[in-house]
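Session log. Operator J.P. requested a structure for one protein chain; no other inputs attached. Running the standard single-chain path with token output.
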Amino acid sequence: MKIINILIFYFSILGLAYGQVPPYGNRSLGQVVDSVTGYILANEAYGEKLGKEELEYLRGMRVYLKENAPYAHDYLLKDLDNEHNFRAYNEGRGDMSIVLDITGDADPAGAYAVAEKLYSKLGKFVTISKKEYQDYINSNDTNLSAEARDIKIRSMIVPIQSRTYRMERLEAFMQRLKAKYGVGENSVASNRAEVSLPAKEVTSDNEEKTGMPSLFENLEAGGGKIDRKAVVERNSPVWNETLGVMTLGNGEFAFNCDATGLQTFAGNTMAHWAWHSFPQPEGFEAGNQTRYPVDSHGRVFNYLARGSGAKVARTKQETAAIRWYYDNPHMMNLCRIAFRGMDGAQIKPDDVKIVSRKLDLWNGRVESVFEYLGERVSVVSTVHPDADAVGVRVDSALLRDGRLGVVLTFGYPLRTQLSLRRKARPDPNFSSVFDRVEGHKTVLENHGRGEFRVIREMDDGGKYMVRLCGTKGFSVSKGGENFGDITREHTVFMRSGNSESAEFTAIFENLQNTENASDYGLDRVKKFRLTKAGAEFGRMKAAAQKHWNAFWNNGGIADFSASADPRWKELERRVVLSQFLMAANSAGSMPPSEAGLLATDHWCGKFHLEMTAWHGAPYFFWGRGELLKGWVEWFNKIGLKSARAEAAAEGLKGAKWLKTPDPFGRWESWDHGPNRITQNVHPFYLAELSYGADPSAETLRKWKDIIFETTEMMLDFLYWDDASQRYVLGPPLMSGAEGTRGFDCWNSTSELNYWAIALQIAQKWRARLGMPEDEKIAHVLKHISKPPVVDGVYIDAESHPETWDRMPNGRFLRPAWLEVYGCVRGPLIDPKIMERTYDKISAGLRSGDWKGNLWGCDYPMLAMTAARLGRDKEAVDWLLFDAPLNAYTPAGYNAGWYLPGNGGLLWAVALMSAGWEGSEGAAPGFPKDGSWSVKFEGISKVP
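Structure written below.
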């Protein structure tokens, strides 16, 4: 009993440390909230439900209450520091109550917002049934309007059920607390000691009554506790392929290295802020894209591409302009850091023998050992968690006599790496060419005391710097004598000296500082300037280790090791590596490209906004929603401005989001981009997940303009067909299946459901902000066209009833209509029709009769659909389906480079493990025949 009391007291004090606000009644709001803090943290002590982030949330809630709830006349909370209540709780004899009463007479909208905030956040643990709530307001507020009733919220009661658990349960609890909050060792030594904690056996009943999960609910999904470090370390890849690339990154910056620990044979250094544009064609001015009239039910939209039946061929100038927009801007490889031999002699793959190479996920570093010239070389590489910097330590006898050195080579960007669409094929291992002198400038400056600076200027006005710090064991100079394969003008040579050990840190900083930097969002990139002391390799290694230890000790984790199915090893490997890669590539200042920070992909590194849900939603399900902070800023500052401009240019109201926008919001990069409309809904879904994680006024503020302005466009885009008394979506539109002709496609299954999903969310957000229901939205939701059905199954689009698996030109479709059932739940989907649709798709894919235009994200989509339909064995089979685009490299990348596949995998595993709204039992998406044992922590249910 004593230990639990101490813990509750500890967390209460932790909450009180944040300060107080002016008193309301006999207690201050700060005291109330701090008591809630201690109470919740003590009862959800793993920190996966509430932890340090939630303390920040509660601190923000105090500020919100102070500023927005002067009308609140009473906050009553049973004293949690009362000994009688502690004893009643610990012995399972009493209830704890949190009672909130908001009259809202002075500010109904504000009162509702406060109530909604508290109810939504604490409602995971304290709830009141909808019927009970309705009965209360109907019986007590009969004279109020419906809107006024909705500002009332009744008492929220939590009956706490408890039961005795053995000491090992508490030990697991204490170890997690110690790691996360620095709590001291448990002083109770006897392994026979018993304490009272919420019982697993009553979880279902307790959750049904109160909405409060057991302390060990997630932990016990498969029985026993999870050794997080063991899970991560057994999946740290050992990959001795010479050219195989492993990624080290912090979300904004990535260093991709080969088996030498550097980029001797392969790998790029990339950052979300690092973009370049080729010179513009003569007589061409970027930003003035040609638009063409496209008919939509007698209304003209102005699109970037001509519609179907256009008889006027493109001019050469138009073709050149379209090509330029597609190519520019493009991500660029900032630098190649590679080993070189005596006096800079090139080292080739056959010159080295790889001994071992490991990506240490737990500590965030690559450890490589190889042999060159008969001597062993040991390398440790790491990336700083907050700065765009890579640190390297090298140990070898080759350093002592100068037979091994390092070069920093600066290349000129390629249009694309992965597609290789050039007559002279570039090196597929890099996103730059290193034999071009013109178009860029490289200057080396000696700043003394162990720091050198390389200033880079590009032909498009771009400018950045590389600071070389802590160059222990190296001398630094420009160029080299034997650099026949690379230009001396753009090379910095680091020669080794008398020591057998050497270290250096390369810090990359963006120097772009134009007058319109704010408009382009360049001022949003976090400025963390690493000092010389902080740049020392030892400190950088320690910082990376601390960061990744904390990453793995928090958020979601899954352990499949007790499974009988031997495939558990591969699934767990993919899950662990996907978590690492998504954090290393995608948690930056803007949404990522499909290849993340690995390389310049087919789309020149620009992101596809219709894939943002695949990249971003899994963060929330795995307890890491804060990693999307930079995305939200991009959506608001750059994306929304661009979307407004596109809507106005097309002739629509509100804001219309593009498929592949220029990252700085200046133009759409693909002439057919406006035909793709799915991306208009993904911000709605991310906003809902954001609000679920943090139902605050600040969340509402960040997303409301995006929600409402996009809603305005979506309503304007629809066509009311008076004859059939329904709303029609399109033309023009490109369906999610990517096979229909955009200019004559309408009423596609995926997009109809996406439209309905977004409009439902818009109504929710109006209510949260105290606004009345929108009558136009309500009318659309009632009369929007139903998804098309042919022969009892869903098809891609009503405009193309003859197509099922492919277009007349032979192009196979991707089964996108499963997306609005398996991934997000479309309100227009009939589950029985969807089941028949899934069966037909499944049969065709398994037999090979229907090959499908599937991508790596589609296999998780199939898995989620199967799981929701109760086909748990098939769900696992789809996750591990043998197909080239469902393969994962030893470093963890789906299909070699496709991050939406990694995100989709995490999405699916979260759904299959923690379940979805309406699912029952533990791990509902995995087989119940004993072949799979699923343990997980910190993973939340999927909507």
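Operator note: The chain has a mean pLDDT of 77.
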